[in-house]
Amino acid sequence: MISQREAHERCASDPSRFWLEAAQAISWDRMPTIGCETRDSPSGRWFADGRLNACYNAVDRHVDAGRGEQLALVQVSAITGSESRYTYRELRDEVARVAGALQRLGVVAGDRVILYMPMVPEAVFAMLACARLGAIHSVVFGGFAARELAVRIDDAAPRVVLSASCGLEPGRVVDYHSLLVRALDLAVHKPAHCVVLQREQSPAALRRGLDLDWHDFIDGAVAAAPVSMPSQAPLYVLYTSGTTGKPKGVVRDTGGYLVALEWSMQYVFDTAPGETFWAASDIGWVVGHSYIVYGPLVHGCTTILFEGKPVGTPDAGTYWRVVERHRVNTLFTAPTALRAIKREDPQGLLMRASQLDSLRALFLAGERADPDTVRWAAELLRIPIVDHWWQTETGWPMVANGLGFERLPVKPGSPTLPLPGYALEVLDADNQPLPAGKQGSLAVRLPLPPGCLPSLWNDERGFFDAYLREHPGYYRTGDGGYLDEDGYVFVMGRIDDVINVAGHRLSTGELEQAIAGHAAVAECAVIGVADALKGTVPLGLVVLKAGITRTAAEIVAELIARVREEVGPVASFQRCHVVARLPKTRSGKVLRATMRAIADGRPYEIPATIEDPAALEEIRSTLDSR
Ligand code: COA
Ligand code: AMP
Questions:
Q1: How many angstroms separate the CA atoms of 293 and 129, rounded?
Q2: Distant-in-sequence, close-in-space partners of 408: CB < 8 Å, separation ≥ 6
Q3: Whether residue 479 has its Cβ less than 6 Å from ligand 2
Q4: Average pLDDT estimate for 367-395
Q5: How high is the pLDDT of residue 419?
Q6: CA gap 161, 182 in Å, rounded
Q7: Beta bridge partner(s), residue 590
Q8: CA–CA gap between residue 128 and residue 575 (Å, rounded)
Q9: CA end-to-end span of the chain
Q10: Is the pLDDT confidence value at 243 over 80?
C-alpha cells in the first residue's frame, strides 16, 4: 500500500497521467486521451476528448455487470417511519421512466431542470433522469424561502421545475407547493412545466393547467436511453452562498467529477462496491450530490437517503438504529449532528443499544470538527473518525486522512494532508507563500484536479473575480488557516462573509440584504458568532432610521420573521440587537472581526483606524448584557 504523500507526489509530477489512469475506473463511450488542458482556462479543464453518461455510470453499468439485484438505494424516513428499497435494476427502470417523462415535456441535453424536493426516492430518480438525458439539474435546498428559490429560477432559467407538495420537518409540514408558487410569482423566468409529487401528509391544490401531477407525468412514459455527453458537459449547477447577497451557480462537469468521486470512494472513504454508504445530509447540498447520489452509486455501493434529524426523530438513537438495520459500513455527517447527539446522549447509551459492528469509519465535514466532539465519538465508537475539508466548489475532499492509504498519524484539529491534485499553500495579502505555522489565506495552486468547478453558471467573470483574481495562479478557497512543519493543514474558518450554520453555508450579505429591506432600518451588519450546537449562528446589529417610534423589540421580531420569510428557516436567525451606530474604521469599513471577537468573548484589539470608539463600547455592553 502506498502512502498518501507518495500518491500526492506522483500526481503532482504528472497530473494528466495520474488522472487518466484513474479515469479507467469509470465507463466511457469514448475513453479520454487528454488529461488536463489549461489553454482556455488556467484553473484547468479535464478529459476534453472523452464522452460518457453520468447516469449510465451510476446505474446501468452495474446492471450490465450482472449486479442488477444488488440494493442501490434505500430511503428511510424517521419522520413517517417508512422505508423503500430499490435494486440497481429497479433504480434503472424508475430513472429511465422519469427521463422518458422529461423527454416528453421537451427536455433535451443542455436544458436546465430545477428540483425543489424533499428526501424522497423520486428526487434521486429525477437527478439521475436529468443526467441520463444530458439535462442539467439544479437542486434547491428545501430550507430556503421562496425568494431564494426565485433567484435560482431566474439564474438557471429551467424548462421544468420538479417539486413535491410538502417536506416533513419534526413537528411541522413544510408546504413546498405554496413556496414554489410564491417563487414563480417573484421570478421573471417562467418554466414551461411544473411537476408536483403529491405526498399523502399534505397534498397540494394543483393549479389547473399549470401543475402536472407526478403520476400523470410518468404515466405511460417510455424508458429513455442514456445520452452520450462530452466529458466537459455540465452535469449540474448547485447554488451556494458567496460574499454577496447573490448566490453563485457552481457548475460541475461530467467526466472529471465522476473520475474524482470514484477515486475518492476508493482512496478517501476506502469503500468497496456492494458496501453500504450513508451520507446523512440533504440532496440540496454538495454532500448530497457527491456522496448520497453520484459517489456511492458510481462506485456500486448501496446508498441511504435519510429523511429526519439526528435528534428528535424521535431520539438521539436514530442514526445508530439506521446503521444497525442497514448494516452501514461508512457514515458521513456534519459535526453539528454529532454535537446534537452528544448533548442528548452523552454516555452513548442509545448508541450502545444498537449493534454497530458493520460501521468501519465515520467521516465529518461541512464545518470545523471540534476536537471534543471527535474525541467523544472516537471513544464510544472505536473506529476512525475522519475530519475532511472541502467545499461546494471542489465537489470532493481537498484535505483528508485517506483511509485507502497507509494510515496517517492524526493531529487534533487538523484534517491532515492534502489529497492528490491539491497543491495547497498558505498565502499572505501580497500573494507570498507563508512558512509553517503562519496563518493566511488557504489557496490551491492551479490547475485544479478533476471534479472542481470549471466556472460559475453564465458568469465566467464572476468565477474569475471570486476565485482567481486575488491570488494570481491560485484558487482562493475563502478559508484561512496554516500548515504545520509536517504539512498538516489547520483550517481556522472563513476569511470572507460566508458563515456555516449547523453545517449549512450562508452569506451574511444575504441576511443583511433581507434586513436592510425593512422600512425602519438605516444600516445593519450580520456577523457569525460561536454557538455550542450549531458551530456558528448569525447575529444582527441594526441601526434604525431617525424618527422611528416603535420599540426595538417590535422591530427585532419583524426582522427575525423577515429573514425567515426571505432567506428561509435554515438561516436560524434568532439573535438581533438595535444599536445607536455600527463601529467603523475612518474609511467606513464595519469592524466585523472585532465585533465577532467581542461576541465570542475572545481577546481583541481596538484598531487604530477606528472612527468612533464609543460605538464599539456600545456593542460590547449590548453583547455583554445578553
Ligand atoms: N426543508 C424545510 N425546512 C427545513 C429544512 C428543509 N429541508 N431543513 C431545515 N429546515 C428548517 C428547520 O425545520 C428549522 O426550522 P424551525 O426554525 O421552524 O425549527 C430550521 O430550518 C433550522 O433547521 P436545522 O438547521 O436543521 O436546525 P434544527 O434546530 O431544526 O436542528 C440539528 C438542529 C443540529 C439537529 C440540525 O441542524 C442538524 O441536523 N444539523 C446537521 C446538518 C447536516 O447534516 N448538514 C449536512 C451538511 S454535510
Ligand atoms: P460548503 O460549500 O457548504 O460545503 O461549505 C464549505 C465550507 O465549510 C468551507 O469553505 C469551510 O469553511 C467549511 N468546512 C467544510 N469542511 C470543513 C472542515 N473539515 N473543517 C473546517 N471547515 C470546514
A1: 12
A2: 4, 401, 416, 417
A3: yes
A4: 96
A5: 98
A6: 13
A7: 584
A8: 40
A9: 55
A10: no
Query: How far apart are alpha carbons 384 and 377 in whole angstroms?
Result: 9
Q: Where are the beta strands (DSSP E) in 393-534?
A: 423-427, 440-445, 474-483, 489-494, 498-501, 504-507, 521-531
**CA–centroid distance, residue 511 to ligand 2 (Å):** 19
For 204-262, give the DSSP string: --PPTTTEEEHHHHHTTPPPPPPPPEETTSEEEEEEE--SSSSPEEEEEESHHHHHHHH
CA 505 – ligand 2 centroid, Å: 8
How many Cα neighbours within 13 Å face the side chain of 172?
9
**pLDDT single digits (tens) 273-332:** 999 999 999 999 999 999 999 999 999 999 999 999 999 999 999 999 999 999 999 999
C-alpha cell at 446: 492551479
Q: Which of 144, 105, 99, 101 is nearest to 125 (CA)?
A: 99
User: CA–CA separation, 307 vs 292, rounded Å?
Assistant: 12
In the structure, what pLDDT confidence band is assigned to residue 624 with cuts at 50, 70 and 90? confident
**Ligand in nearest proximity to the CA of 570:** 1
Other beta carbons within 10 angstroms of residue 523's beta carbon come to 17
Which pLDDT belongs to residue 244? 73
Whole-angstrom distance, CA of residue 117 vs CA of residue 283: 9
Residue 547 inside a domain? The answer is: yes
pTM: 0.96
Q: Give the integer Cα–Cα distance in Å for 3 and 5.
A: 5
Q: What's the total number of domains in the chain?
A: 1
- Residue 245 near residue 513 (C-beta atoms within 8 A): yes
Range of the domain at 540: 498-624
Structural domain includes residue 548: yes
Of 14, 46, 52, nearest to 30 by C-alpha is 52
**pLDDT at residue 606, rounded to an integer:** 87
Question: Chain centroid to CA 282: how far?
Answer: 8
Cα 145 from Cα 515, distance rounded (Å): 15
Instruction: Please report whether residue 313 resides in a domain.
Output: no
Q: What are phi and psi of 328, to 5 degrees?
A: -65, 130
Residue 589 in any domain: the answer is yes
Q: Look up the CATH number of the domain holding residue 562.
A: 3.30.300.30
Alpha-carbon distance of 385 to 281, in angstroms, equals 17
- List ligand 1's pocket residues with C-beta within 6 A: 142-143, 167, 169, 172, 174, 280-282, 285, 287, 309-311, 333-334, 336-337, 340, 366, 502-504, 533, 569-570, 572
Q: Summarize the confidence of residues 72-82 as an average pLDDT.
A: 97
Please state, in angstroms and as integers, the Cα–Cα distance from residue 157 to each residue in 52, 236, 307, following that order: 25, 13, 29
The verdict on the CB of residue 366 being under 6 Å from ligand 2 is yes
